[in-house]
Amino acid sequence: MSMKTIMVCDDDQGIVDVLEILLDAEGFNVITEINSTNLLKKIEVHKPDLLLLDLWMPLLSGDQVLKTIRNTESIKKLPVIVLSASVDGSDIAEDAGANDFVAKPFNLDDIINKIKVFLY
């Protein structure tokens, strides 16, 4: 089985680092992006198997990015799990087209289990 690639987009470097270490330890290839405005281009280049996306980011919010992904033919089927500390996060994520939602602060096992649902 080939190594699955997961892209992580969050404006919090600490969260990005934790997820990168965790996913790497689980055997995933991890690509990170802190600036959401670079994300679409990066997805087209790296073609990840799944995206972990923060909802609240400066410049371009996660739900805006997600709506663009869902309207872009080449990447619209990309599984996206939204991460957010927001109370309405799961509703916003669902409205934008997320496949799943994880509340922050998140449980690492929970994230891994959700990822495996989509990748295996």
From TrEMBL:
Residues 5-119 form the Response regulatory domain. Keywords: Kinase, Phosphoprotein, Transferase, Two-component regulatory system. One of its GO terms (biological process) is phosphorelay signal transduction system. One of its GO terms (molecular function) is kinase activity. InterPro entries: Bact_response_regulator, CheY-like_superfamily, Sig_transdc_resp-reg_receiver. The modification 4-aspartylphosphate is found at D54. It comes from the Bacteria. This is Histidine kinase.
